[in-house]
Task: structure prediction
Amino acid sequence: MTDGSRVTDVLIAGAGPTGLMLACELRLAGVDVAVVDRLAERSGESRAGGMHARTMEVLDQRGVLDRFLAAGVPRRIGHFSGLWLDFDHLATRYPQPLMILQSATEQVLAQWALELGVRVRWSSEVTGIRQDAAGVEAALDTPGAPRRTLRARYLVGCDGGRSAVRRLAGIGFPGTPATLTALLGDVELQEPPAEPVFMQRSAQGDFSVIPFGPDWYRVITVQYDRVAGRGEPATYEQLRESLLRTAGTDFGMHSPRWVSRFGDAARQAERYREGRVLLAGDAAHVHYPAGGQGMNTGMQDAVNLGWKLASVVRGRAPQTLLDSYHAERYPVAERVLHNTRAQTALSRPGPQADALRDVFARLIGFEDVNAYLGGMISALDVRYAVGCKHPLAGRRVPDADLKTADGETRVVELLRGARPVLLDLRGSTAVAAAAGGWSDRVDLVEARCDDGPWAVPGAEPIPAPAALLIRPDGHVAWAADAIPDTSALHTALTTWFGPPAPGPTQSAPSTPAG
Result:
């Protein structure tokens, strides 16, 4: 970086889970990153409290999942609007959600980012942006200090639901307004319930009392058809009064650690990219936290965006690759907004909702319904349109056991370096020859797979293919069941990872760094 108007490859606004995950992905790819946050320091607040299977899988792909497992506890807490789902049969090594506070997730991510050379600049709020053909200049304001600027090739707003980056980029945020008020507090209880309480419904709303430690509990109350003013503070006394109304007792609540308020407003950015400015996480989508999908969706946004942005910055792919970020992730968040609206409708008090919940609870008892909802909430069933007709194409790759010349391994272990992998399960010389022009950016691995058909959420079991091309985010870009027509593989390699490098007897058009 330079002094004065400092320069970096990518500027990330927001040091929450999405911003930190994106910073780590970019650093793994060798991209220079600067992270800024308007807060003076990490708040320690923990709105999110769980991690789903797909997020755990992508962390396993990078070899850091054990750090998060050590900071959390797997629990059978999968649900749809408080109606319990059976996640045991999800086709993953990590079917049960991990109860881990957002503050713990941020601490682990921050340490990983630090190891990769990422530093967070606190008390640095983005207050202005100016784009040109080569990059973005961001104005940064720090209380008590002169305004400074930082120039980057790209700016990514991971700065929350009230994103300054989104506003400054002129990106609309349409959606539906809040219809309820929820209060959340981490407190101690003198007379806690004998068992955890989750979404206990009453005529006045619903409440939850969830143990998160030996001495403290997370208490949540929801009041429907009451919307708090935007500037109205959330207080401990309000939480206590709300709990008395909905539960009939305050369980001897005392010693609050913090209290917060949220609603069910559901909004989504009109587009995730405006030139050299991109959005991820809550800056791109907000919704009621039903099912615990928000933080997970944001971290998966980051994993989808990271390798694409790195490829463009390093000059290996054209800027048009970034358009696939919106094309792939917008529908995912759109579905999250849709299902959280449905969960809110199911949780409302009254005889109509009671009848609906009774019918829905019976439907969940059917294996296909449970599998559909489990795949959706966990995000294991996400499938992108990648231009290949194979049944595996676009899906996250199953974590099959493999045997290589170097010993036994798993598919996800091949993705530790955040690089694409061309996995050859038949030892075809044609596969290796076709990928020769991409050897500088795609890892060719020859292996054998003794498994039977691969279990895939949202589909019937799929026989292991002869070869498959796996993107750095763990989704399959191309697959074939027999010795392939390498023209389709060549197309997939070019589409996702840019043109081949020039060889001794070939030339390829250069792609200027984005």
Q: What stands out?
A: The first strand starts at residue 6 and ends at 13. The longest helix spans residues 323-347. The two ends are 18 Å apart (CA to CA).
